[in-house]
Design goal:
The structure holds two protein chains of two kinds.
Chain A lengths: L2 E8 L2 E8 L4 H8 L18 E4 L2 E4 L12 E3 L12 H8 L9 H14 L5 H7 L11 H14 L5
Parallel strand pairs in A: 1-5
Antiparallel strand pairs in A: 1-2, 3-4, 3-5
Chain B lengths: L25 H5 L15 E7 L5 E7 L1 H5 L3 E5 L11 E4 L2 E4 H8 L4 E2 L5 E7 L2 H10 L1 E6 L6 H5 L25 E9 L2 H6 L3 E9 L2 E2 L7 E6 L5 E5 L4 H12 L6 E5 L14 H12 L3 E4 L2 H7 L2 E2 L2 E9 L5 E13 L6 H7 L9 E9 L13 H18 L4 H8 L18 H10 L1 H4 L6 E10 L4 E9 L5 E5 L7 H13 L6 E5 L16 H28 L6 E4 L2 E4 L10 E2 H6 L9 E8 L5 E11 L6 E11 L6 H20 L30 E6 L21 H13 L10 H11 L1
Parallel strand pairs in B: 1-15, 13-14, 18-19, 22-23, 29-30
Antiparallel strand pairs in B: 1-7, 2-6, 2-8, 3-7, 4-5, 9-19, 10-17, 11-16, 12-13, 12-15, 17-18, 20-28, 21-22, 21-27, 24-25, 25-26, 28-29
Classes of the chains: A alpha+beta, B alpha+beta.
């Protein structure tokens, strides 16, 4: 079995590993680095549960090979909170009950943060299309979309 | 009574019930810390993979596993020969009846494969790559048989026969020829012929629905380990650790005490994780090699081999007088069970006309096998299918007599005292309240544009109670732990700690919940049937009351007064009055700190079989716009009104309503199992089996109505299932209003609607 030497930065920390050339970035995160917050819902890029940032690009980590991440900076759900301070999106998801079972939640949070980092004032339609690559079967999306809109307003400093 | 803006019901003396608290498991779930099924590992763990049938229907002449077993890295191989043959007997399990012979055949094919994706063998190996290589080395000699997919074709006398020992139950006399019809059931009241004679208007129509999958985002996953002394432990994603224990021990011939099951966090279930697939395979493999074995389904396997709900053929006939009274209602339902018997035909029949107060009603149902995966429960199993047909016909009848759709329902609505066709008389129920709130909602009066239409539909589900256990431990510092046995699939920990805090009179943050494994809490039936907040909630309330009784006893002991002279108020023991003596109140913390000197630790327990589940109704309003050039239906606005009895945590009640509504919109517009001519599932992935995405949906306005269930201390009914009953008819009725076309076959997908528009307009 061929293995490739890979170095990357994950949530700001250096990681070095021997990666099976067939392993996806998701496999590497979950099985080699024990970062199981990124979930595998489909392994075909359809559900978004494995969403991570790869050099500031939102990707489905099931569609990226581990070896492709050589030299890259990866951000996962585990790196989203700042020490003991939740990211405003995480806090609002809790307050607005924007999760039920929670399996899709890490992917939604990573994707929503990517949106707000680029676009602090999205319309509801923009939020819905940005998040269309993340499947949720529990919530009907209502509370997720509301939580993202509300967080965006909070982060812009608008009064509730 | 509707809840106010922030969900709390004012002036009822409740401190926590009805508040939108932060769920206790929330932080773990927004930080990626929560462990779901596939996240669990053990030292020395190896992986299991399943060999599945490439054919829809075939005899297995032989299975040769020796080459696979000889592959380096392969630790165990199992086939049905490793499982005991079980007799065909039915056992009640909550909302469904189970047959363990059939369950065993579904877990691993015995003699025959019955559907594309049916498990044939399983391998445990040191890596996925080795396991996959081993699967390719297993030689199965198949004799391909003719197959049947469609329910009507499966009922034909000359249809390919799945089971040569299946003789229709419920027909007198029992047929002497086997068939694919497992069972016929019938419910009714009154004189159906006389009822139709008294009608001024009669509408009769046939409908079809497709098999649809629950679509949970987390695939099935399990880790199993068996030690050399026969002690076994399974960690898995399930709606019920106790049913996994019961099923797996039965399938493998173990004593229940040999098996411990720990539930992981569960990434959605909707009924689909009430059965076992991987758990018995992983354990059988571990019993052979004594290594922990982890198995995780791919998404393709989830679609091919785990439970969709039935596709069906539905015939409905309703008669009414000109002034809007239903005189007769009749339905014939034919449900796909999948490869072995056991569709949700009974609840389908029982719920069909349950929203209506009818003198003359008859429902006949058939449970039909075909070469599809065995169906599993899906939110209000069976009811959404029959209620789709009924609610479409109700809409047509209302239109024909020129009555408003809600007014027609109000005139015929089931109320307290109504004799339901399936047997009981309803106690206090909230159907008319949901209709009134829907009628008064601004949505119902909003203007519509061109090519837009509005539809209304209602829904009913029984809700269930059943066995639940709970324990409540008071810690030395006066904080508390609530221990229960039902996996938290959508916020039930939040509702359980709210109820415990309410009874104890302490802050909700001082109560932490634990979902225990099967060896750490008394038996609890699964998370399903909308039962957890009702039944397990009742157990938690009784455990908390047990604690309060003990706290009063301890205070009485400390004060040296009679326990009857001690009351528990706002988290403190107080003398009941001046006659009882003058004492400073003792807080929970004060008493907990002295527990060792007053008789030892303070823990409460309750185990019960919860009776008196409250039936629930919902009424949905849907606006659609139809693109007449493409046939695409866009849902513009959606309002769902539901009687929750009492919303313990309104946000998660709304969440259940919103999520169910959107699943129903998917069922109505997109979702279907598609088979090729060889009986192979063609769309076993989220790209081709398209569930609704965020950009497909509007906001879903969930409106909670509260008509308390008198059998629950706080009035809880249960909310999870009703929301899936109305949407298909609400959408279809809206499409009919927009186009004048009655789309009777689901899903109302663009090609189908476009064809109807081209032919009909």
């Amino acid at each position: 079995m061929v293995k490739t030497h890979v170095t990357m930065t994950v949530n700001g920390e250096a990681a070095e590993l021997l990666c099976d050339t067939r392993a996806t970035l998701l496999d590497v995160l979950r099985d080699e680095l024990d970062l199981t917050g990124s979930k595998e819902g489909c392994s075909s890029g359809d559900c978004g549960a494995c969403s991570v940032m790869l050099d500031d690009r939102l990707v489905c980590s099931c569609l990226v090979l581990g070896a492709e991440a050589e030299g890259c900076a990866i951000e996962t759900i585990e790196g989203m909170a700042d020490d003991d301070r939740l990211h405003p999106l995480q806090q609002t998801f809790l307050e607005e009950a924007a999760l039920q079972c929670g399996i899709c939640t890490p992917g939604f949070l990573v994707a929503a943060k990517a949106l707000l980092d680029r676009h602090p004032d999205p319309t509801e339609t923009e939020v819905r299309y940005w998040l269309a690559g993340n499947l949720c079967r529990c919530t009907g999306y209502d509370k997720i979309v509301r939580a993202v809109m509300l967080t965006a307003a909070d982060m812009r400093g608008e009064p509730r | 009574m509707t809840t106010n803006g922030n969900g709390s019901t004012q002036g009822n003396g409740l401190k926590w019930v009805g508040k939108r608290t932060i769920r206790p498991d929330g932080v773990d779930k927004v930080t990626g810390r929560a462990q779901f099924g596939a996240d669990f590992t053990l030292p020395g763990m190896i992986v299991g993979q399943v060999l599945r049938s490439p054919h829809a229907h075939a005899n297995i002449r032989s299975i040769k596993t020796d080459k696979a077993e000889a592959l380096p890295g392969v630790k165990a191989v199992v086939t049905s020969a490793d499982f005991p043959e079980l007799p065909s007997t039915f056992e009640a399990a909550g909302e469904v009846m189970l047959n363990f012979r059939d369950m065993s055949c579904n877990v691993l094919a015995r003699k025959k494969v019955l559907y594309h994706g049916h498990a044939v063998a399983a391998v445990a190996a040191t890596s996925v790559a080795v396991a996959d290589q081993a699967l390719a080395l297993i030689e199965v000699d198949y004799e391909i048989l003719p197959h049947v997919i469609d329910v009507i074709e499966a009922m034909a006398p000359d249809a390919p026969l799945l089971h040569d020992d299946m003789f229709t139950i419920g027909v007198e006399p029992t047929p002497d020829k086997p068939s694919n019809i497992a069972k016929r059931v019938e419910y009714g009241l009154g004189d159906i012929e006389a009822g139709f004679k008294a009608a001024d208007v009669v509408v009769e129509r046939e409908f079809t629905t497709k098999a649809v999958h629950q679509g949970y985002i987390e695939p099935h996953a399990a880790v199993a380990t068996a030690s050399e002394d026969g002690q076994c432990h399974i960690w898995c994603s399930t709606q019920g650790q106790f049913v996994v224990r019961a099923y797996v021990s039965k399938l493998l011939g173990l004593e229940i005490s040999q098996l411990r099951v720990t539930p992981s966090e569960i990434g959605g279930g909707f009924g689909g994780k009430t059965v076992v697939y991987l758990e018995p395979l992983a354990l059988a493999l571990s019993l052979k090699c004594h290594r922990p074995v982890k198995m995780v389904m791919s998404r393709e396997e989830v679609f091919q081999a785990s439970g969709p709900t039935s596709g069906a053929h539905v015939w409905v006939k309703v008669g009414a007088t000109k002034d809007g009274r239903i005189t007769a209602a009749e339905a014939v339902l034919k449900y796909q069970a999948g490869a072995v018997q056991g569709s949700p035909i009974m609840p389908g029949c029982m719920c069909a006309f349950a929203p209506y107060d009818l003198e003359n009603v008859k429902v006949v149902g058939f449970d039909v096998v075909s070469n599809r995966p065995k169906v599993a429960a899906y939110r209000a199993p069976g009811a959404p299918i029959s209620e789709f047909g009924v609610e479409c016909v109700i809409d047509e009848v209302a239109n024909k007599i020129g009555m408003d759709a809600i007014a027609f329902r109000e005139k015929n609505a089931a109320r307290e005292g109504t004799h339901a066709a399936y047997g009981p008389r309803f106690g206090p129920v909230g159907y008319t309240e949901t209709l009134r709130v829907a009628k008064e909602h601004p949505h119902y009066h909003a203007p519509l544009g061109p090519n837009q239409g509005r539809g209304v539909a209602s829904g009913f589900w029984f809700n269930i109670g059943g066995d639940s256990s709970a324990a409540l431990h008071i810690n030395e510092d006066g904080t508390a732990t609530v221990i229960s046995g039902c996996p938290d699939i959508g916020g039930s920990r939040a509702s359980l700690v709210i109820m415990a805090a309410e009874i104890l009179g302490i802050d909700v943050d001082r109560v932490r919940p634990i979902i225990a494994d099967t060896s750490s809490i008394g038996y609890s039936f699964l998370t399903g049937g909308s039962r957890v907040t009702f039944a397990t909630g009742m157990a938690v309330i009784q455990a908390a009351e047990d604690v309060v009784r003990q706290l009063r006893e301890r205070a009485a002991m400390i004060w040296e007064i009679d326990v009857e002279a001690v009351v528990w108020e706002n988290g403190e023991a107080r003398p009941s009055g001046s006659n009882a003596g003058e004492f400073d109140p003792l807080s929970l913390g004060d008493i907990a700190a002295k527990a060792g000197k007053t008789g030892g630790p303070i823990n409460g327990h309750a185990s019960l079989n919860a009776q008196g589940a409250g039936p629930a109704f919902g009424t949905h309003i849907c606006d659609v716009e139809v693109d007449k050039e493409t046939g695409r239906v866009t849902v513009l606005r959606y309002t769902a009104v539901q009687d929750a009895g009492k919303a313990i945590h309104p946000s998660y009640v709304e969440g259940q309503i919103q999520g169910g509504a959107v699943q129903g919109i998917g069922w109505a517009l997109n979702e279907e199992y598609i088979y090729d001519e060889k009986g192979r599932l063609e769309n076993a992935g989220f790209l081709d089996y398209r569930i609704p995405v965020a950009s497909d949906m509007p906001m879903i306005d969930a409106v909670i109505v509260e008509v308390p269930n008198p059998k629950h201390p706080f009035g809880v009914r249960g909310v999870g299932e009703v929301p899936l009953c109305p949407p298909m008819a609400a959408v279809a009725n809206a499409v009919a209003a927009a186009t004048g076309l009655r789309m009777a076959d689901l899903p109302i997908s663009p090609p189908k609607l476009l064809e109807a528009i081209d032919n009909g307009l």
